[in-house]
Structure formats: C-alpha cells, structure tokens
Write a structure and sequence with these properties.
By secondary structure, the chain is α+β, with helices and mostly antiparallel strands. The chain has six helices and nine strands; from the N terminus they run αβαββαβββαββααβ. The longest helix has 13 residues. The N terminus is likely disordered.
C-alpha cells in the first residue's frame, strides 16, 4: 500500500551536531531531578517549530561531563529549506553553554545512537595548579608513571567484556565493547587520556581512568590491571575519576547515511 493511501506523511530526518559544557547539567538525558542538555535542545526546537520535537542522542553523558561533539537526530514532516538559518536561530535560543555547529539531512532510517561506528573520549589531568583550567582538568597531586599507565592501556585491546568498569545495575543487554585505541598523551602542561571504542558502558571511561591512576601511583601493576578486567567485578577496579575533566570529542558514522 502506498504512503498516500495509508495517509502517512514521510518524515525527514536530521542530525544535529553540537557541543556543551556539562557543568550546569545533570547529564544528557532528560530526567526529573534537574536540567539536562537534551531538555534544553528540545525546548529550543519546540519554540522554533511551535510544537514538541523530540530528539535522540548518540549516547548519554553523566552529570558534569562535557562534549566537544555530540550528535542527536530529530524528524520533521517538511524539508527544512535553510539549515544554516535553523542553526543560527537555535543558538540564539540555547543557553551560552550549549552550541549547535551544524545540522545535516540523513536517511530516514538513520539513527544517531545505533549507526555510530566509533566514539572518542578525552580525559585531562594536570599536576600543576591552573586557575583558568581548574573546572575542566583533574588536578592530581602525586607523581605519575605514564609509561606504566600506557603499558596497562595495551591490556584493554585484549578484552571485550568491561563489566569491571561499568556502573552497576544498568539496563544494557551486554557489557561488551571493542576498544580501538587507548593511551595517555602529553599536551602542554597537561596529560590527556584518549580512548576510542565502538560503544561505552555507563561510567566506563571514568572507571578506567581511576584504575589507570592507581597504576601510575604504583598501587596497581599491569598484571593487577589485567586481573581486574578478567574479574568482571566493579568492586575490583579503582575509584571513578571526577566527571568535570571528561569530554566526549568525536562520533563517526558511515557516509552512506548522509543526504545532500
């Protein structure tokens, strides 16, 4: 049966690319106990389109976590003629700590979460006090052995089950992820942990960072780190690193889902 015969209007799907400072938000996903990034974007879309426009994000970021690049999708019945104009209007409606960079048309079945190929996070630490970066970097007061930490990072490639680094009692069906890259890199006076995977579990990056910091302090060896992964027990891993120094920095998709 044709769409016209079913009285079904075909939808146009769009990807929104945005960034945000997560300091003032209870994470990405809408929830009853505080403001979220998703909530603010949906409010701005509702003002512009004059009716509710739900969005679906590429994933969740926890309270206080930032994004240099987050992607979400939404549907609209009509083709949007000027996407740059929509970007401009949304940025005027959004608070200063959320910015839309661009909006792209995608295939009707494209999904911001399920079609993502990889996601990349950065975590920043520094052993020096910096009054201009203290809200975005975790200051660490102990010397760290980054060579040992990078050696432990290589163990992450050997496994796919990261239950030991997952928040307990989540609603995911599997704790398996494939890590493509993990390592510490020097960036000026700071150190940056970079990790790329096909997916991440709740609290996974912060738990990995916290455990690697134990390695850097000599409290945990590479063999210990390996055993922590194999234990599949969150209680064996280190304390989660603070949220304010974590950034979602990139999400990749197959070229085939994008439309002109």
């Amino acid at each position: 049966m044709l769409l016209a015969e079913q009285n079904i209007t075909p939808m146009n799907r769009y990807f929104i690319y945005l960034s945000y400072n997560g300091k003032n938000y209870c994470g990405w996903q809408i929830q009853p106990n505080g403001p979220t990034v998703q909530q603010r974007i949906e409010e701005a879309l509702a003002i512009w389109f004059r009716r509710p426009v739900p969005i679906v994000g590429a994933g969740r970021t926890d309270t206080g976590v930032h994004a240099r690049l987050m992607v979400a999708h939404f549907d609209w019945e009509e083709k949007i003629e000027s996407l740059p104009l929509l970007v401009e209007k949304l940025n005027r409606l959004l608070p200063k700590d959320i910015a839309v960079s661009h909006i792209l048309p995608v295939a009707e079945e494209a999904h911001a979460r399920f079609d993502a190929i990889t996601r990349t996070y950065h975590y920043y630490i520094s052993t020096e006090k910096n009054p201009f970066r203290h809200e975005l970097v975790c200051r660490f007061h102990h010397p760290l052995d980054f060579e040992a930490m990078n050696k432990a990072c290589k163990e992450l490639y050997r496994y796919t089950d990261f239950t030991s680094f997952s928040k307990l009692h989540t609603d995911v069906k599997t704790n398996h992820c494939r890590i493509a890259y993990a390592g510490w890199e020097r960036e000026g006076q700071e150190w940056r942990f970079v990790i790329t995977a096909d997916r991440f579990l709740r609290n996974m990056v912060r738990a990995i960072v916290g455990t690697l910091l134990d390695v850097g302090r000599g409290k945990c060896s590479t063999d210990d780190f390996k055993q922590i992964i194999e234990a599949q027990d969150r209680g064996r891993a280190g304390t989660s690193a603070p949220a304010h120094a974590l950034f979602l920095t990139n999400i990749t998709y197959p070229d085939s889902i994008f439309r002109e």
